[in-house]
């Protein structure tokens, strides 16, 4: 397929992707681990995402992020995710809060060869990163986790935490909107071998948990120093934690330093900009999967956060593309029959 001058593009919609393994969290976790290894070994180019807020500034109503990457090694593919979120969607039934699309391209001919929905890939891989971070950061005897946010990523977070940390037996699933937590708990009942308890009181649940995971749309951080305790870990995919949590941590972990440090609303960036933490004191997810020590005692408190690695969207999309080709899934479209000019 790669290297051809045939301008054929395979279009995969969500239903095709699901048949191709989109909801296989074990597979996504494996791809996540492999992708971070490659990133740490310098086989991936992933410039920081470019953020376009509408209107401009931190008070955006919607945004679009452009996330290009090149994956070297045995894969040798280029790609981009066009990622978006809309505040209005959060209160509009029938449409997800975040909607993404991914394009895979041949780095030799630069022809695109696959376009696919990126929405559930984003949710799966975001939760897989949090699951991977939790695997290395949570105490070894973690049996109770509090997941805050029962939206799209809340659903995939249950899968990721259960798959990455098999010792977890109880999950408190929290949302400001208790009905959403109850609905997701009901959907997940009996699927993952854990007891899921819906609640709207995340702080009380967190006090009973060794692992706390934030996947909310909260604009103002609400997890402060009073949530911090020894023998625990907090993992956030959004902006739930205050700078005090970063400062209280025995170890801080980020998904990708070069990128997260460009986003000024991230607690870790604010602590770094204030000169209160150095790059050398922070571990990246690549460090974890490449064997750098992270948790050295169960008594430590560890904080981990992420902003999202575009390269991971592309490695997951490529795996789904390969499965889809084998299974004959998707719709073929063409850029042209014959290019008008060359
Ligand atoms: N780090 C990454 O790679 C990455 C990638 C994609 C999305 N995200 C972030 O993940 C977050 C969740 O996205 P989603 O698509 O699941 O959104 P969603 O709208 O489907 O769900 C978010 C849920 O959070 C709940 N919530 C908001 N504030 C809360 C609070 N203070 N306490 C408890 N619950 C609260 C909402 O009621 C909602 O149910 C967003 O902030 C998004 O930006 C991160």
Plain-language structure description:
With 342 residues, the chain is of the alpha/beta class. It is built from eleven helices and 16 strands. Strands 1, 2, 3, 4, 5, 6, 7 and 16 form an eight-stranded mixed beta sheet that branches. Helix 2 crosses helix 3 and helix 3 crosses helix 4. The model has no long low-confidence stretch (mean pLDDT 97).
Characterize the overall form: globular
Largest sheet: 8 strands, mixed
Task: Pick out the low-confidence regions.
Answer: none
Supply the number of helical segments.
11
Which structural category fits the helices and strands? alpha/beta
* CATH fold call of the largest domain: Rossmann fold
Alpha-carbon Rg, integer: 20 Å
As a percent range, the share of strand residues is 25-35%
Task: Give, in order, the helices and strands.
Answer: EHHEEEEEEHEHEHEHEEHEHHEHEHE
Number of domains: 2
Distance between the termini: 21 Å
Q: Which CATH architecture of the largest domain is right?
A: 3-Layer(aba) Sandwich
Question: How many beta strands in the DSSP annotation?
Answer: 16
Chain-averaged pLDDT: 97
Bound molecules: nicotinamide-adenine-dinucleotide
Looking at this structure, what is the CATH superfamily of the largest domain? NAD(P)-binding Rossmann-like Domain
At the first level of CATH, the class of the largest domain is: Alpha Beta
Helicity level: 25-40%
């Amino acid at each position: 397929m790669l290297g051809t001058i045939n301008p054929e593009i395979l279009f995969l919609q969500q239903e095709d992707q699901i048949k191709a393994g989109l909801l296989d969290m074990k597979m996504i976790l494996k791809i996540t681990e492999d992708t971070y290894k490659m990133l740490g070994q310098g086989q991936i180019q992933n410039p920081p995402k470019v953020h376009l807020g509408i209107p401009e500034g931190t008070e955006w109503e919607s945004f679009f992020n452009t996330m290009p990457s090149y994956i070297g090694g045995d894969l040798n593919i280029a790609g981009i995710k066009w990622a978006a979120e809309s505040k209005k969607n959060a209160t509009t039934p029938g449409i997800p809060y975040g909607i993404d699309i991914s394009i895979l391209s041949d780095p030799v001919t630069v022809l695109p060869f696959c376009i696919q929905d990126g929405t559930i890939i984003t949710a799966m891989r975001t939760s897989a990163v949090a699951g991977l971070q939790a695997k290395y950061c949570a105490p070894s005897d973690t049996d109770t986790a509090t997941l805050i946010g029962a939206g799209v990523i809340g659903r995939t977070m249950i899968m990721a935490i259960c798959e990455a940390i098999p010792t977890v037996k109880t999950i408190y699933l929290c949302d400001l909107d208790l009905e959403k937590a109850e609905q997701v708990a009901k959907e997940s009942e009996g699927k993952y071998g854990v007891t899921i308890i819906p609640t709207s009181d995340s702080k009380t649940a967190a006090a009973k948990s060794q692992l706390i995971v934030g996947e909310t749309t909260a604009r103002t951080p609400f997890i402060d120093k009073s949530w911090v305790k020894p023998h625990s870990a907090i993992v956030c995919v959004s902006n739930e934690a205050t700078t005090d949590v970063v400062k209280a941590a025995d170890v801080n972990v980020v998904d990708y330093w070069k990128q997260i440090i460009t986003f000024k609303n991230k607690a870790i960036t604010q602590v770094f900009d204030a000169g209160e933490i150095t790059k050398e004191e922070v571990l990246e997810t690549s460090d974890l999967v490449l064997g750098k020590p992270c948790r050295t005692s169960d008594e430590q408190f560890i904080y981990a956060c992420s902003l999202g690695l575009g390269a991971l969207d592309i490695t997951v999309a490529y795996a789904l593309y390969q499965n889809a080709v084998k299974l004959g899934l998707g719709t073929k479209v063409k850029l042209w029959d014959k290019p008008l000019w060359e």
